[in-house]
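Lecture notes, unit on binding sites. The following record was shown on slide 14. It pairs a sequence with glutamine.
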Amino acid sequence: MEFGRGQNLFGCIVRTEKEKRLMLNSKLANVGTSIFTEMTLLAKKNNAINLSQGFPEFETPDYLKQAVTEAINSGKNQYPPSAGIPELLDEIAKLIKRQYDFKLTGSENITITSGATEALFVALQLVVSKGDEVIIFDPAYDAYEPVVELAGGKCVHIGLDAPNYKVDWSLVEKNINKKTKVIVINSPHNPTGTLLNRDDMLALEKIVLKHELYLISDEVYEFITFDGEQHESVLRYPKLFERSFVVSSFGKTFHCTGWKMGYCTAPTEFTKEFRKLHQFVTFTTSTPNQYGLIEMLKHQPQHIGELSTFYQEKRDYLVNALKDSKFKILPAKGTYFLLADYSEISDLNDKDFCYWLAEEIGVAAVPLSPFYPEGYVDKVIRLCFAKYEETLDKAAEKLCGL
Ligand code: PMP
Ligand code: GLN
């Protein structure tokens, strides 16, 4: 029998005294590599069609790329103001007024961040202190819990069940105690593609106000909703907004996830605190990209208006291409993800099934169990349909063969 270097008989890692002295006492002992990174690496290794990590296959709009290039070439390459270029903040305020009929002031309520991830980090660090409890809904995106734990808080997980993944607000109420400080919501929801409706928002508002909680609302897919459904942004609920941080991302909206451009919208006093910490996380966010986004928001407003139709066609295309497969497709009302139940195909657990799918069949998907740290049994995987029809066809052909 062979052992790896530094491993004992049971496969445990054995460290020398010097190695131990040099080790960090991990603040995130339970955290590994994100499932999105893991599955994209697996797709590359196996040359599989990558419907796993969520990113669009399409190019960033030419108009936006040119505007950023022009900003670079005209010397707009030094630090912008920490909170963001004022003109961009104003354009976002106008977008919020058009979209949600809510009047805000760019200079007081909006801060540009390095992706939604930074905004989530800063907002959670601001509101969570040692011993606080934060309510999150499983399946939950992976960027919430580690940040809560870093701040000394604890997540209380409330499960959303297949196939509708509805929030049971009476269960939320039951889970609130003196330690409860924050609720985190995400609509349109990654990975289930469900939306919170008006009744959900009114129930949420009642709970947040009654218990004087804070709300962090992850709305990165706000412009991708289907079948005529309206996105119920917190920005449509002024009283709820008074206790909220609303997190947005340009990455999803303008097919530029790699630029890591996002923003946080919050009441004036929250924004002041948000900006204090933002200064020491990134200080500010890429100047030429901000200039490009000003031009895009000013001169290409139709892009946002057309996004839902664009992605609805993709969703319908993939659903149709899989209609003769043994997968049972769950309804998706927003985002660029579809859930597929594979229980008629395999008894493997979801992670093993995804490995088998990538290695043997040549399609990479995301298992749902990493979104459920409290345990998961369903046979459901996530497919990203932000891809050209040609890619979806190739993947569907393989999936229909199962
Ligand atoms: N929240 C959710 C629900 C997401 O799916 C993502 C990324 N895909 C993010 C936040 C992070 O967005 P960004 O890339 O702008 O940091
Ligand atoms: N949010 C993307 C997804 O859900 C991935 C982003 C990331 O890789 N961190 O797939």
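Take-home: The chain is about 40% helix and 15% strand.
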